[in-house]
Amino acid sequence: MPKGTLDICEKYYGTKDIYELFGVDKAASEQEIKKAYYRLSLKTHPDRVPESDKKEATEKFKILSKLYSVLSNKDSRAVYDERGTVDDDDDAGTNWLARWAQFFKPLTTEDIDNYKKSYIGSETERSDIKKTYLGGKGCKNYMMQTVPFMTCEDEPRVAEIVQKMIDDGEVPEYESFTKEAKAKRARRHKKYAREAAELAADMRKQTEISSLEKQLAERSAQRKGAFSSLLESLEAKYCNGAEEDEELYDFEEEQKKRERKRTSSRGAAKTATKAKVTRRGSK
After folding, report:
1. pTM, full prediction
2. Which of 6, 68, 88, 152 might form a disulfide with 16, Cβ 3.0–4.6 angstroms?
3. How far apart are CA 200 and CA 205, in angstroms?
4. C-alpha–C-alpha distance, residues 49 and 10, integer Å
5. How many CB atoms lie within 10 A of CB 49?
6. CB 41, CB 62: distance < 8 Å
């Protein structure tokens, strides 16, 4: 039997309560809900996760966007508030990434970096750490996948935050966190190192592609310059040749004119001589 929207929400986020997921009160305003959705969507947006996690991130993003559409519509929100249910059939064919773009500008690396700076060390991060610590019963792997921007390098800092919560009686102690098996920790760090290496390789590849495109553009410009030079050379060559041909033509024409004059002169001389001989014979 296919799972409903709230079942999928529980699978990925550990709760069926949309207000709990969004971290807002039931009486929250539309603007408060929108802010909460934007904050959560930055965590799950497929553009900010490794390639290996894109499939799951896309599903989490889709369900989050579906839940936002429920709370942002007064009718569907009223039904959810009264019955605790959502319509699972009203989003067929919906492109949630496109819908997201209608509300918010496209994500940029700068946006993510700025959000990261404001998030780390904030009360929001502390709240997320507490929620994921409880939701995963102290599983650091779960926390790594859920708390935004958390990496292996953050483990000592996060451990201090959680330990203080334990000491203050704010959360129970889970030995899976405080006494994590070394083998489990080693596997997580190995996976993290592999993903970091893959990401670095992808970045190098992109850099190489950009460099290659630049080289091709430079070569294209060089070829264009060489072709222009060739055209100029050919133009100069054939223009000069045309002038030489014209000069040669004029010289030959002059020779022909002179030859015609000489022929004409010889013909006139012969005619005159013949006439003279004729006159002598007649005498």
Report:
1. 0.43
2. 6
3. 9
4. 21
5. 18
6. no
